[in-house]
Automatic annotation (TrEMBL):
<dbReference type="InterPro" id="IPR006539">
    <property type="entry name" value="P-type_ATPase_IV"/>
</dbReference>
<protein>
    <recommendedName>
        <fullName>Phospholipid-transporting ATPase</fullName>
        <ecNumber>7.6.2.1</ecNumber>
    </recommendedName>
</protein>
<feature type="binding site">
    <location>
        <position position="809"/>
    </location>
    <ligand>
        <name>Mg(2+)</name>
    </ligand>
</feature>
<keyword id="KW-0812">Transmembrane</keyword>
<feature type="binding site">
    <location>
        <position position="493"/>
    </location>
    <ligand>
        <name>ATP</name>
    </ligand>
</feature>
<keyword id="KW-0472">Membrane</keyword>
<feature type="binding site">
    <location>
        <position position="393"/>
    </location>
    <ligand>
        <name>ATP</name>
    </ligand>
</feature>
<feature type="transmembrane region" description="Helical">
    <location>
        <begin position="1014"/>
        <end position="1035"/>
    </location>
</feature>
<feature type="binding site">
    <location>
        <position position="671"/>
    </location>
    <ligand>
        <name>ATP</name>
    </ligand>
</feature>
<dbReference type="Pfam" id="PF13246">
    <property type="entry name" value="Cation_ATPase"/>
</dbReference>
<feature type="transmembrane region" description="Helical">
    <location>
        <begin position="60"/>
        <end position="89"/>
    </location>
</feature>
<keyword id="KW-0445">Lipid transport</keyword>
<dbReference type="Pfam" id="PF16209">
    <property type="entry name" value="PhoLip_ATPase_N"/>
</dbReference>
<dbReference type="InterPro" id="IPR032631">
    <property type="entry name" value="P-type_ATPase_N"/>
</dbReference>
<dbReference type="GO" id="GO:0016887">
    <property type="term" value="F:ATP hydrolysis activity"/>
</dbReference>
<dbReference type="InterPro" id="IPR018303">
    <property type="entry name" value="ATPase_P-typ_P_site"/>
</dbReference>
<dbReference type="GO" id="GO:0005802">
    <property type="term" value="C:trans-Golgi network"/>
</dbReference>
Amino acid sequence: MTYFMSCVTSEEERRVRANDRDYNEKFQYASNCIMTSKYNIITFLPVNLFEQFQEVANTYFLFLLILQLIPQISSLSWFTTIVPLALVLSITAVKDATDDYFRHKSDNQVNNRQSQVLIRGLLQNEKWMNVRVGDIIKLENNQFVAADLLLLSSSEPHGLCYIETAELDGETNMKVRQSVSVTSELGDQNNLASFDGEVVCEPPNNKLDRFCGTLYWRDKKYTLTNQNMLLRGCVLRNTEACYGLVIFAGPDTKLMQNSGRTKFKRTSIDRLMNTLVLWIFGFLVCMGVILAVGNAVWEREVGSLFQSYLPWDPPVDNFLFSAFLSFWSYVIILNTVVPISLYVSVEVIRLGHSYFINWDQQMFCSQCNTAAEARTTTLNEELGQVEYIFSDKTGTLTQNIMSFNKCSINGQTYGKYTHTHTLSGRFIRLDFTPFNPLADPNFCFYDDTLLESVKVGDSHTHEFFRLLSLCHTVMSEEKSEGELVYKAQSPDEGALVTAARNFGFVFRSRTPGTITTTEIGRPVTYTLLAILDFNNIRKRMSVIVRNPEGRIRLYCKGADTVLLERLHPCNQELMNITSDHLNEYAADGLRTLALAYRDLSEDEWEAWSESHRCADKATNCREDRLAAAYEEIEQDMMLLGATAIEDKLQEGVPETIAVLSLANIKIWVLTGDKQETAVNIGYSCKMLTDNMTEVFIIRGHTVQSVRQDFRSVSLSAAWGEGGKQLQCPPPPPSNLMDNISGEFALVINGHSLAHALEADMEMEFVSTACACKAVICCRVTPLQKAQVVELIKKHKKAVTLAIGDGANDVSMIKSAHIGVGISGQEGIQAVLASDYSFSQFRFLQRLLLVHGRWSYLRMCRFLCYFFYKNFAFTMVHFWFGFFCGFSAQTVYDQYFITLYNIVYTSLPVLAMGIFDQDVPDQRSLEYPKLYEPGQLNLLFNKREFFICIAQGIYTSVVLFFVPCAVLSDATQSTGVPLADYQTFAVTTATALVIVVSVQIALDTGFWTVFNHVFVWGSLGSYFTIMFALHSQTLFKIFPNQFHFVGSAQSTLLQPVVWLTIALATAICIVPVLAFRFLKVDLKPQLSDTVRYTQLVRQKKRKPVGRKGRLGARSGSRRSGYAFAHQEGFGELITSGKNMRLSSLALATFASRHSSSWIDTLRRKKHTHTHTPPTGAETDIKIMYC
């Protein structure tokens, strides 16, 4: 009995007594009212402002606003800061309020749903929010379940009811739940009103598939499992009515427990930007200190001479205090190096990029009627920096739509195509209708020898399909006579039962104790004695049935690795033949199951049934006891054969993986399937190829063996076979794998991965795996998937993306930098947890290579220009400080300072950040190497930041000193000097706006109507607003606010001013133009080359295209275990319950992706020096001339 002593750890209990609100209220359980909203009318303003001011930037600008309210240090009006700050806070508040309004609306809709509650023997309509723990609720057909209920009774026989859990887990198949037998007869309201049973169960948790509790009633106790529960969010189907006891309500329900907030993800650009902002703030403080020191020196040496008629303003009484105040004044003036509009602009740009993803018709699946969806707006540019993709297999790379393809029965293989074919060369699909009126017309099979074997009455063939028709947990619905609809919880089971149906063994219906079939036209009812349920540890399921003649037989199907070792020794010869067939099926990448049976005597059945009954009723360690009982009976079985199911690859998967590999993106497959299946799918989708140097397989079961495997891999990869003959101790694997040559792949099993993820071995695993082109992890758990992703994030400075379609992929999706959910056959839990979603794996290449690359490019160009224009704007104040006695006097009019980032320069940079592109989307897909700058973080990093800052400082020097030098000696036509403050301010401001407008025109690579309107419109708005602000009209209305009256008109009428502006513009822009021309000519980037050659081709209108093809590979690997199943259904029943790869891409990169594109172009240029240029060669020569 020591085997069963691993008892469950103690935890808090929940006690619920039926029909006793007073008792239950003592525990203060949550009500059934849910509230997902964050604010109400009273709390919105204070709470929202509190949240917004937790952002460092908002707090910083609030601090500046407070400083500006102090007259002694502020040379700017308070509105220069409060206007942009209020605008940012208002926009964010409106967005938050809108989101919360919809949350309130959804909450009210749910909370006000009506439910029938049994109160004092009468059913009363109550709102969901008024339902309490311990209430008994009546549900009717097609109603939503109001709370987590213990099913008490049902209108269906045996206390059964049918539910749909689509809102809970996305699965549309109906599921069955059953009440405890002792309460199933409490169908009458009076009986239910007197029911006073008490439930003791686990506390609230988020485990959808598990429930552990005990019902105490009439001095007896009854075990409760998940099969007795109806969870909130489910819908009652095909059941007239049922009653349930509320166990968990409101926020305690499993639905709400699973709706926790996803971890907030930030991009690498966000993190870099936060660092740069801190640097800029430090730079701002340094400038303030320099100018404050200058003020102290000036006041001591020069200012003291003016004290008699220009005394210090109170409370200043010495030069040190004057310098202190001057420091804060300059902090206010120079704060625009970090404008608050930066953060708003970034969010607007990201929102635009998200809409582009949502609107992309080329990522719309017409079959599923599903569009791509950006479920977050904060990660778009990181899509352009992905280096590692972690993918699920089933349903992600494959369609998860299974078809019965081949089988092996008593040593004979079936399923190969016969020689009979049509004139067109197509194979003829068997027509089962004449043989079997109940056949599924959509079933495809081509080997008529199997059908003939059934017709002639071969006993092994009959027993094979009899097993498939009985050993399953499928539910059948017969809508009309002969029209059967199977509800299978996994596509594998549906395919197998459908195959048996077409070959004459039709599963018709079931009750908790019987299975009714039609065998070769004859109805047969079997007594269902037991179902030995499937789980991921057993990897098999069995049923024990009694046929009409009274013979008891166990039927079992499962993974060949576990089933073949449980066969009777007399099966050795047949097992060898069947294993060979399994290997053949594996070469085709098929998923397999082995089938076996065992005859049981009445005594054997009775003895085992008693031990099974004891294990089933155990309150402690029940799963372990049941597993031991199952193991006892599933021995000495007779082999029947094997099935092979095809799970086809999704459309475009090989092409997508090929293109992503050319973009230097490494793809890892993390799957729960067996090694053989995953490896064959790897070859099918071109992750693994014949051209690879070697495919390493790690399969050790101990720490020592796994470590030795890694070291063997490192030696083999570094030195080949000769590495094994080295006499000196080898260096650590992490050093060996740094400079390997050749392409390698790594395959590792789940038990080996468990050791590889341990702290003392993780570095060996990371270094080995990351040196390989492809990695496949088999038999991994959902937790291991997340651990692998976290490991790469920890040890590699690389952006990771996880993609999957099932609930077992959720942890991996949440762990990666970017999570992508595929809306497929396994529900929508992966989609709900993801950052982006679509319906086909092939759309991933467009998401990354087009939208991701464009988003990264746009954001980098936006940030470079934004920092440039603000340093050019702000640093003019710094230079002016040396000429104004460090008095904190501003160069510009205060209204220009306010409007510069809001009106004059905001829209052009937004247009560039939203619409810009260097090459069209088709070229992005054809030239995957264009993706690499994002991975290497080349377009915006600390170096690029300093270059932008240097250019901005250079521009500020030109904009200050050129007008200062020219205007100091210039005069008007009347002889009046132009060297006045207002003229200088207008000239500098005008030159600044023109220079930054010309600069963004140069930076924009793709012009749209919006770019033209925003760039030239902003320039026009500057002159319009400036003339209005300097007009007599506003001066007469607000004489104390508008001090520059008439300055614009008088200044801009002077030719020398325009000459000064033109000179400053030329000095700022000409070096930039020269540098860019030289860079494109001497060291062009791939995007420059692609753009130029495209331009020349468009002019010549000569299409270029060559055919390329990826070779196929098939290998003799073991096939996969075809049983994507969940535990629990067996117990329930027995208890009563194209985008094709571009030819240009393949032709260009298939043989040359390891060499530089530019080097290739140059080699072609020299090779054909004396050859008449044609086509693309002409384009290249023109470029370099």
